[in-house]
Amino acid sequence: MGNTALSVAYKIIDACTNKEMGDFISNLKLQKMLYYMQGFHLAFFDKPLFKEDIVAWRYGPVVPNVYRAFSAFGTSPLSVPDHTEIIQLGKKEENMFRSVTEIYGQFSAVRLMDMTHSEPPWKTTDINDVISLNKLKRYFLTQIEED
User: Fold this and answer.
1) At what angle do helices 133-146 and 27-45 cross, to 10 degrees?
2) What string of DSSP letters covers 68-81?
3) 10 pLDDT above the threshold of 70
4) What's the pTM?
5) Which of 14, 16, 49, 113 has the fewest Cβ atoms nearer than 10 Å?
6) Domain spans in the chain, listed from the N-terminal domain onward
7) Main-chain dihedrals φ then ψ at residue 62, nearest 5 degrees
């Protein structure tokens, strides 16, 4: 696992941005997408996609250093800095990434926040505590078994 959460964030921003169609992503939505990417990666591959912790904040799961990296955008659309190399994942990981983007990328930031608030990893973690990888894996294994 050599990925940083920021490198995964750039990949998500790139995948969710379509200027011609007017599709953009906010920091709030990015945080929820990181949560879903990490959870499904743990469930499918039994290892984290990125090394940083996800913390239970008031508005849902957040990777604090990624949140801070994009905080200057406020609620405005995020963009990938010029000359940023977008990470490439293995074939199976790319398929998972694409599926999670297609399924969860269609929802608004507020809808994703509501969804995460109803899910055990966030609900059973105290505010400002780390959501454990074990909680994420256990929950997301139930999601892939249902699909």
Assistant:
1) 80
2) HHTGGGTTSPP-PP
3) yes
4) 0.94
5) 14
6) 5-146
7) -145, 140
Rounded to an integer, what distance in angstroms lies between the CA atom of residue 49 and that of residue 47? Answer: 7
- The answer to whether 23 touches 16, Cβ cutoff 8 Å, is yes
- The Cα 62–Cα 38 span in angstroms is 11
Half-sphere exposure (CA, 13 Å, Cβ side) for 63?
Answer: 27
| Helix, strand or coil, per DSSP, at residue 60 | strand
Q: Is the dihedral of CA 63, 115, 74, 19 positive or negative?
A: positive
Look up residue 18 and give its amino acid.
N
Angle 112-10-132 from CA coordinates, rounded to 5°: 55
Distance CA(68)–CA(70), nearest Å, equals 5
Q: Are 79 and 17 in contact (CB under 8 A)?
A: yes
DSSP 131: E
